[in-house]
Amino acid sequence: MPLTAAARPQTADLRGARRPDRLGAAEAEILRIVTDARTPVFVTVRADGRRRYSYWRPLDSATGRGGCYVALPTAACDALHAAGRTA
Question: Percent of the chain at pLDDT above 70?
Fold first, then answer.
């Protein structure tokens, strides 16, 4: 009885596929805020095309802080937008 090779499952050829860039702490925090459905995020686009992302930070009764709009770091948001991770 001859030996036969076991059939290998078909997988996608990932050679040449681009690996996603590693996120820094600021970018990871921005994506956490933006993807949280409970947090309304606002995008303001200026005439020159610059984007400004902000969100409403609810009042924290323990610290008494919050209850205001908070702007996210523009440079980090621009990098995420350029990488196609935000709209």
Answer: 76
> How far is 42 from 68, CA to CA, in rounded Å?
13
* Distance between CA atoms of residues 67 and 63, nearest Å: 11
Mean predicted confidence (pLDDT) in 51-64: 92
Reported pTM: 0.62
Domain boundaries along the sequence of the chain: 25-82
Cα-trace Rg, the chain: 22
The tokens for 46 are 């200026």
How far, in Å, are 30, 72, 80 from residue 53 at the CA level? Answer: 9, 6, 11
